[in-house]
């Protein structure tokens, strides 16, 4: 049994150190609709870590990743759940820097607060490839859901898609391969498509964007993904990133021929992955996958 799965989890620089454990259990939220709302902590490189139970065991520390259309777990967690990885079917995993064939296991139930996902086929990777986390909660595959990350209250909420009222800036998004959403941004005189990726430590750009910006490298950075492939990218200062009425300033972008842009068919047009170095500057942000909408509040 083989298939394709795409991730945009990326670590730039050195491999991440072990994560800070989530401080509490998932918190159920009252109401008729299934909602996942849980306190969150940030790992050492600023990504969002939440507690998740798998087949009734846990909680496990998992990264919330809007750049992943599938959930994945580490080999350590798979062994704790009793899976024999030597006999497991495999799936082709596409990461930022390359692809690899990895084991895949069937999880009967993934539970995060009141959010329950049943009968999930889950790829398995080494912990070192996901920054020492127990796994990745891939939320891009939740196509009828809405994700809200509130940094002020340290709270992550996943609920059914709905037309929400509020004073946040609303930005329409485009659909990318695998259910991911990208927003149109402007960087100086260049227009680009930006994929919002809470699994990425730093913001990454493709070569088409670097050439359009004429961005000269000021340093080199090593980029690690969810496979053993390692790449070197050019680190350069970029013009302000403008999303409608919101401007992100003083951005460093790591440019390269990253494999994930090939997977997403985004090599010819200027494109970038906006990571937690940019997203973490917001008070709150939300992504509605059904409405194809991003909301920001600074």
Poorly predicted runs of 5 or more residues: 7-45
Our count of helices gives 4
CA radius of gyration is: 18 Å
Shape, per Cα inertia axes? globular
Residue fraction in strands: over 45%
Query: Biggest sheet: strands, sense, closure?
Result: 16 strands, mixed
Tell me the series of helices and strands, N- to C-terminal: EEEEEEEHEEEEEEEEEEHEEEEEHEHEE
In short:
Helices cover 7% and strands 47% of the residues. The chain is mostly beta strands and 298 residues long.
Mind explaining what this structure looks like?
The strands form 2 sheets. This protein has a 16-stranded mixed β-sheet that branches. 7% of the residues lie in helices and 47% in strands. It has helices spanning 75-80, 207-213, 259-263, 276-279, and strands spanning 4-6, 11-12, 36-39, 41-42, 48-54, 57-65, 72-74, 90-94, 99-112, 115-125, 135-138, 145-150, 155-160, 169-175, 181-187, 190-196, 204-205, 219-224, 230-238, 241-243, 246-248, 251-255, 271-274, 284-288, 293-297. It has 298 residues and is mainly β.
Write the layout of secondary structure elements.
Blueprint: E1 4-6, E2 11-12, E3 36-39, E4 41-42, E5 48-54, E6 57-65, E7 72-74, H1 75-80, E8 90-94, E9 99-112, E10 115-125, E11 135-138, E12 145-150, E13 155-160, E14 169-175, E15 181-187, E16 190-196, E17 204-205, H2 207-213, E18 219-224, E19 230-238, E20 241-243, E21 246-248, E22 251-255, H3 259-263, E23 271-274, H4 276-279, E24 284-288, E25 293-297
Parallel strand pairs: 1-8, 6-11, 7-10, 16-23, 17-22
Antiparallel strand pairs: 2-18, 3-13, 4-5, 5-6, 5-9, 7-11, 8-9, 9-10, 12-13, 12-24, 14-15, 14-25, 15-16, 15-20, 17-23, 18-19, 19-22, 20-21, 24-25
């Amino acid at each position: 049994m083989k298939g394709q799965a795409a991730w945009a989890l990326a670590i730039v620089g050195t491999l991440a150190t072990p994560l800070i454990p989530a401080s509490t259990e998932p918190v159920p939220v009252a109401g008729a609709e299934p909602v996942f709302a849980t306190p969150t902590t940030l790992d050492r490189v600023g990504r969002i870590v939440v507690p998740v139970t798998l087949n009734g065991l846990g909680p496990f520390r998992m990264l919330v990743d809007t750049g992943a259309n599938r959930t994945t777990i580490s080999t350590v967690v798979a062994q704790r759940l009793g899976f024999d990885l030597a006999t497991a079917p495999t799936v082709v995993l596409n990461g930022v820097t390359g692809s690899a064939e990895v084991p895949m296991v069937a999880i009967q139930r993934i539970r995060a607060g009141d959010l329950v996902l049943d009968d999930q086929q889950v790829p398995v990777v080494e912990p070192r490839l996901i920054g020492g986390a127990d796994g990745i909660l891939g939320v891009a595959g939740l196509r009828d859901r809405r994700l809200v990350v509130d940094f002020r209250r340290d709270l992550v909420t996943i609920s059914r898609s709905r037309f929400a009222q509020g004073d946040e800036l609303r930005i329409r998004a485009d659909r990318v391969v695998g259910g991911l959403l990208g927003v149109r941004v402007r960087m100086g005189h260049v227009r680009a498509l930006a994929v919002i990726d809470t699994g990425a430590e730093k913001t990454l750009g493709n070569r088409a964007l670097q050439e359009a910006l004429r961005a000269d490298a000021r340093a080199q950075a090593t980029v690690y993904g969810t496979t053993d492939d390692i790449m070197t990218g050019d680190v350069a200062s970029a013009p302000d990133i403008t999303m409608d009425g919101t401007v992100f300033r003083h951005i460093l972008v790591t440019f390269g021929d990253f494999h994930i842009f090939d997977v997403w068919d985004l090599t010819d047009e200027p494109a970038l992955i906006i990571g937690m170095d940019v997203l973490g500057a917001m008070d709150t942000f939300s992504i509605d996958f059904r409405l194809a909408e991003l909301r920001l509040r600074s």
